[in-house]
């Protein structure tokens, strides 16, 4: 059994090893002090009882009472001391795991099931806390107690010690067999817990899809299959455990029977006394509990080794998004940058394939310029956008800001300099204010309201039950798709970033709202360099320059009008979009004609009609 995963925690344990040593001593005292009671019992039988000296009982009885009190105090003190120590270690380990996940690239996150990460951060670390609080102290104390008890038996009568050793040999063999099989089952079981966690998380997040398509029975069956697999593994562990426990219970019983039989024969033959036999039998009974606990402790240790291994698997993930050197500035000065963005012979492929998603791509965005990136599905647009804030790193070439390779910039400074908003808006279980301020920590309410005005979100936010203080719920699902997108965009623009990367951030709003937002962005953030992934002709038309991406390469570049005349691919990409845009504008005009008179209050947003608790409104058109 390799304990290396547990030994890797030594640097953390070392800082509190003095206190932990006290815990080990108290555990040993609480477990081992009972071995003295059988010796006292034997003395009472062979002494005061045999001699009929009742006055000689007081001291031994008081000794037994003192031993009981000492055991209780030791157990109480152990629990009081160990709880804050192991809790502090658990907090440190969770923080380390969370920190590792925060600075790991998106590509690596995508390669892991979220449930596997969650189970490591919750179940596995809880298992380690329990092991260091209870399992390890008892696992270290138990062999000492068994050794001391065996020595005491040898001292009382050598043959008693020989009987105990004879029982120890099959116990050790059984433990070796149990360890190998139980460790394998434990690893499979804990991995299955991760799969179950992933399945539950996906089912909760996708509940609207499951209900809409009537696939709840399918989801239930999939969960049942995982649960049955987990059940089978747990039953397998229970069978192994029960077999080992049976051996651990049987062997001490045989040892006790041997001591009783041999001891009785010795009393009859005159080479031992009744008190010695009683003491020997009682010591074997005291040793029985540690022996039986050995099965539980060994199983706990194996699960903890597995949990530690799973924990270090995450911690050992290569930190591929790192600073080139120096410390991280918590308040970087991004005002010194002009915002020139250059992709210099950039190639990129994901870690699980050699196929290039981007291939020798060159692109230049001048300071303050808005460039729209257009391409078919799978052409590499989102991948290109993710390179700018270093959510992923280029395979070759370089992304430069003002001529400096972004890999040479501190990560914290780069992510103050670059702000992003994606098509799939992620909001957190917090208030509207907290979600928006995340883009500029410390921003006041005036800045929040200005960002909401820019993104045409101020109206619907003002109608929410508690305005800026309204809790948006998990992932913001209490809001419509368009509302979530506008809050996410407000988060991106509140800090007035030098470079703004927008991955189709308004796909769920109508064309008129998109036009208003883009015009506001140009007026309020005239110095921001903007790279926007566009699917609508209206978006491309408002950009200073449009670049057409095809199979990871820039195949055409120019203004919207120029590309309509010169690029067949661009006309093909924009053709359906232009028709959809015209249709959307016509629908908007019709809807406007039927609106309430000026000054009338509408219960919903005049653009998307959604209120808190509503779903996506049909008037918030999807991507054209």
From TrEMBL:
Any one Pfam family here would be ABC_tran
One function term, GO molecular function aspect: ATP binding
* The UniProt record lists the keyword NAD: no
Ranges of biased composition (kind: Low complexity): 588-610
Q: Which UniProt keywords apply?
A: ATP-binding, Membrane, Nucleotide-binding, Transmembrane, Transmembrane helix
> What InterPro entries has UniProt attached to this entry?
AAA+_ATPase, ABC1_TM_dom, ABC1_TM_sf, ABC_transporter-like_ATP-bd, ABC_transporter-like_CS, P-loop_NTPase, Type_1_exporter
| Regions that span the bilayer | 20-45, 57-77, 131-153, 159-178, 243-262, 268-287, 294-312
Domain of life of the native organism: Bacteria
Q: What is this protein called?
A: ABC transporter ATP-binding protein
User: What's the source species for this entry?
Assistant: Brevibacterium metallidurans
């Amino acid at each position: 059994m390799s304990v290396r995963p547990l030994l890797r925690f030594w640097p953390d344990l070392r800082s509190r090893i003095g206190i932990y040593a006290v815990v080990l001593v108290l555990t040993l005292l609480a477990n081992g002090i009972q071995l003295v009671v059988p010796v006292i019992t034997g003395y009472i039988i062979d002494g005061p009882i045999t001699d009929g000296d009742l006055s000689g009982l007081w001291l031994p009885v008081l000794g037994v009472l003192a031993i009981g009190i000492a055991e209780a105090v030791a157990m109480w003190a152990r629990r009081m001391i160990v709880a804050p120590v192991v809790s502090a270690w658990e907090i440190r380990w969770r923080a380390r795991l969370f920190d590792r996940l925060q600075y790991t690239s998106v590509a690596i996150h995508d390669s892991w099931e979220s449930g596997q990460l969650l189970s490591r951060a919750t179940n596995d670390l809880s298992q380690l806390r329990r092991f260091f609080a209870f399992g390890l102290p008892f696992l270290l104390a138990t062999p000492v107690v068994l050794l001391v008890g065996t020595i005491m038996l040898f001292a009382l009568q050598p043959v008693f010690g020989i009987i105990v050793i004879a029982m120890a040999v099959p116990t050790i063999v059984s433990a070796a067999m149990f360890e190998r099989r139980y460790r394998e089952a434990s690893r499979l079981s804990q991995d299955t817990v991760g799969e179950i966690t992933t399945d539950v998380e996906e089912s909760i997040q996708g509940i609207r899809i499951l209900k809409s398509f009537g696939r709840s029975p399918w989801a239930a069956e999939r969960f049942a299959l995982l649960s049955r697999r987990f059940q089978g593994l747990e039953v397998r562990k229970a069978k192994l455990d029960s077999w080992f426990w049976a051996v651990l219970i049987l062997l001490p019983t045989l040892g006790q029977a041997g001591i009783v039989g041999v001891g009785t024969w010795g009393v009859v033959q005159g080479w031992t006394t009744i008190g010695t036999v009683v003491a020997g039998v009682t010591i074997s009974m005291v040793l029985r509990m540690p022996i039986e606990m050995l099965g539980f402790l060994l199983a706990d240790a194996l699960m903890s080794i597995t949990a530690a291994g799973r924990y270090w698997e995450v911690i050992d993930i290569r930190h591929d998004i790192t600073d080139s050197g120096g410390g991280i500035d918590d308040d970087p000065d991004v005002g010194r940058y002009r915002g020139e963005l250059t992709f210099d012979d950039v190639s990129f492929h994901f870690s699980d394939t050699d196929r290039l998603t981007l291939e020798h791509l060159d692109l230049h965005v001048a300071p303050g310029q808005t460039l729209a990136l257009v391409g078919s599905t799978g052409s590499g647009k989102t991948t290109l956008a993710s390179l700018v804030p270093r959510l992923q790193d280029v395979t070759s070439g370089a992304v430069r800001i003002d001529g400096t390779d972004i890999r040479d910039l501190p990560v914290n400074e780069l992510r103050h300099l670059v702000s992003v908003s994606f098509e799939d808006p992620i909001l957190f279980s917090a208030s509207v204010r907290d979600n928006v301020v995340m883009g500029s920590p410390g921003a006041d309410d005036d800045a929040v309201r200005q960002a909401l005005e820019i993104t045409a979100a101020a109206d619907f936010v003002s109608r929410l039950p508690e305005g800026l203080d309204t809790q948006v719920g998990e992932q913001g699902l209490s809001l419509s798709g368009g509302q979530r997108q506008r809050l996410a965009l407000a988060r991106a623009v509140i800090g007035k970033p030098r470079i703004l990367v927008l991955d189709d951030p308004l796909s769920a709003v109508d064309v008129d709202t998109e036009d208003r937002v883009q015009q506001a962005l140009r007026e309020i953030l005239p110095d921001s360099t903007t790279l926007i992934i566009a699917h609508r002709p209206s978006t491309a038309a408002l950009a200073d320059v449009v670049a057409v991406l095809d199979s990871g390469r820039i195949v055409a570049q120019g203004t919207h009008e120029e590309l309509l005349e010169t690029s067949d691919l661009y006309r093909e990409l924009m053709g359906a979009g232009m028709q959809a845009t015209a249709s959307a504008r016509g629908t908007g005009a019709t809807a406007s004609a039927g609106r309430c008179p000026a000054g009338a209050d509408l219960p919903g947003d005049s653009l998307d009609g959604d209120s808190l608790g509503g779903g996506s409104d049909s008037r918030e058109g999807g991507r054209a």
